[in-house]
Design brief:
Helix content is about 15%, strand content about 40%. With about 375 residues, it is mainly beta. The radius of gyration is 27 Å and the shape is globular.
Length: about 375
């Protein structure tokens, strides 16, 4: 019962304070005196702990997992994997087995999983994305030290894998920091460099974003019309950038993460005028943009508004891209001790969101299975 801990604490304190059986009572036997001394010492040590426990009730969700109580609009698709990406037709989801692992596809209707990178040797991948023509864009290291895996995560290169899944990937000749952005309607992409990748070219702590077309010559893909989008030194604030999504339908704007600015903010840059807009603009709050909706009016965000505890305690929110900062919470995985939801993407028809279950103790991006959120069913539940 909730009343028991305070009762025990008060009782112990009463003995420790002394009353009928005070240690100073004349004629008290030595063995009894020693017993009371032990009781006094023990009660003084335990009283603060008991009091704290009484004032800190255990969460009703402690000891449970989000999968124990999934609402009807959520379903689990796989029991492993991370960093999902929808196929253009919405029938398949591409994902990474683990950081520096293989890439897999899963059929949404049947849940049949098949590998797509088992046919060649490699050191693992950190990203896999569908290109507009059905080929895959991969990002992965050319060297890997299991004793210092974080180094390889920074030193990743871009490749294109043919959709037949019978050929080795073709390198594009550029490094990529974290996730690239891929157009859903044309052979075009954007990606980020950080100073750790090109220390001879870039000042320490800086980042820069690029865009380019993907063209094929003699059947081999390569970058063309490469141009700098922006250097972090030209921003009106200090941050490390990461490309996220071309904003549909015109794809004239690119959303990006502004790490370290007011926590982390959701920003966009007009690819023509270079005007930068801060869409979240929430001081002290972690807001990282992820998948964008096909109408371009909202983006999914990894956000800690519900807790204020930072990137390890995020859930998935929906941010309106009008500068208002209006947010709607979509998942509640972080209500379960030790869990979070992350890395969401929206299907091209806007009906579904794929995301992963994650744990607060792990580095960003680590996942424990792909889940699907049905926006139509969620709206019916709200009614």
């Amino acid at each position: 019962m909730k009343t028991e801990p305070p009762h025990v604490g008060c009782y112990s304190f009463a003995i420790a304070s002394g009353s009928r059986n005070s240690l100073d009572s004349p004629g008290l036997p030595d063995d009894k005196r020693w017993q009371l001394m032990q009781t006094k010492l023990l009660s003084l040590l335990l009283f603060p702990l008991i009091s704290v426990a009484a004032d800190s009730p255990v969460s009703p969700l402690a000891g449970k997992s989000p999968v124990d109580e999934l609402p009807p609009h959520l379903s689990r698709l796989t029991w492993f994997g991370e960093r999902a990406d929808w196929s253009p037709d919405g029938r398949r989801i591409l994902f990474i087995e683990k950081t520096y692992g293989d890439a897999f596809e899963v059929e949404v209707a049947t849940k049949v999983v098949r590998p797509v990178t088992h046919h060649f040797h490699h050191l693992g991948f950190t990203r896999a994305l569908y290109l507009a023509n059905g080929d895959l864009l991969l990002s992965g290291p050319e060297a890997f030290n299991p004793k210092a895996p974080h180094v390889s995560r920074v030193q990743c290169f871009l490749y294109v894998l043919d959709k037949s899944f019978t050929k080795p990937p073709v390198p594009l000749g550029s490094k990529c920091s974290e996730g690239p952005a891929v157009s859903r309607r044309r052979m075009h992409m954007a990606w980020t460099h950080v100073s750790e990748q090109y220390p001879d070219e870039m000042p320490k702590g800086s980042s820069r974003m690029w865009e380019a077309d993907l063209v094929y010559e003699d059947g081999k893909p390569k970058l063309a019309n490469q141009r700098l989008i922006i250097d972090s030194r030209d921003l009106p604030f200090t941050c490390t950038m990461e490309t996220q999504n071309f904003r549909p339908p015109q794809e004239r704007e690119l959303t990006f993460s502004a790490y370290g600015h007011q926590g982390t903010d959701v920003c966009g840059i007009d690819l023509v005028t270079k005007k930068v807009t801060n869409y979240s603009n929430a001081a002290g709050q972690y807001d990282e943009p992820e998948g964008i909706f096909p109408d371009g009016l909202h983006t999914l965000v990894e956000c800690d508004r519900q807790s204020g505890k930072g990137a390890s305690y995020i859930d998935i929110w929906k941010l309106k891209l009008d500068g208002s900062g209006a947010l709607e919470r979509l998942t509640f995985f972080s209500d379960y001790l030790g869990y979070k939801a992350s890395n969401p993407v929206v299907s091209d028809d806007g009906r579904f969101m794929a995301f992963q279950m994650a744990k607060s103790k792990d580095p960003a991006g680590v996942g424990y299975g792909i889940f699907v959120f049905d926006f139509v069913k969620a709206a019916q539940v709200e009614k």
